[in-house]
């Protein structure tokens, strides 16, 4: 028995009690969770909050602008952007194993925040010289459960914002969404006045495209996947399927190649997997019965427009036994 208003009130009090008059830093990913967490903290402690956006190079097309322009326009929040694209690519070089990738991405995330913190401290030295000690994370209840934080659950995946944290973490975490499900988070976001483009966004994992490339993450593969993903998003939206589909991971099987024929030549390219799912809370999911016509358009466009891809396949596995993401 809850209302968005009562949860906000309760969380605002908790946040104030935890943070006091100290400074707090919040990472924005471009997703719903971090946006709502940031808006909640801003509601609680106002301009003690500084948001940091790490561009790790694993983002989808347009996401950086969405944060830098749209979120800031609405909330008026103070934002620092860290360009960590090189740093992440270097750290991920040669790594294919999913849990290793997740841990590396989680670790580099925290490092980037620490770098941003150092810069902020240096900057503040002319003023009050006060250190930022608190870090906001948009961890949801399902993230906690699936990372083995719940009672008696096995570790399925290390969500970057839970299991991937290093032991020598120098921040105290503020996690105002830790007991909530996605629909509750969306309701809170609306109540806080965030626009539908942010609140209604489909989930996208923190480790981003890094866990949607099956195999090693390279710049070339990221560019290719980003292009395919953008096509899928446009076509699903134009087909009016955004409500029915919870999310649709687009996955590049970078270590798999198959023979094809395009124009009058043989190709030996990579497959792209479409993984449209319907779900209430991401704990379980069913594959979405996307109309054949829409699938055909997506397939045609990807194989025509994305160089290096000569096959598009559909994932028809529910969760369980599959997880939503492939890694
Ligand atoms: P899985 O693949 O475990 O995904 O069925 C469940 C939901 O969680 C998202 N996901 C993540 N979100 N950090 C996040 O913030 C992560 O590390 C992460 N891994 C998966 C996934 O997109 C789906 O919505």
TrEMBL record:
**The keyword ATP-binding is assigned to this record:** yes
Annotated EC: 6.3.5.2
One GO cellular-component annotation of the UniProt record comes to: cytosol
GO terms for MF: ATP binding; GMP synthase activity
The GMPS ATP-PPase domain is annotated at 2-201
Binding of ATP, residues: 29-35
The UniProt keyword set, sorted, is: ATP-binding, Glutamine amidotransferase, GMP biosynthesis, Ligase, Nucleotide-binding, Purine biosynthesis
EC top class, as a word: ligase
Tell me what reaction this enzyme catalyses. Answer: XMP + L-glutamine + ATP + H2O = GMP + L-glutamate + AMP + diphosphate + 2 H(+)
* Pathway given in the UniProt record: Purine metabolism; GMP biosynthesis; GMP from XMP (L-Gln route): step 1/1
Outline the subunit composition: Homodimer.
Write out the function statement from the record: Catalyzes the synthesis of GMP from XMP.
Q: What protein does this entry describe? A: GMP synthase [glutamine-hydrolyzing]
Organism field: Pseudoclavibacter chungangensis
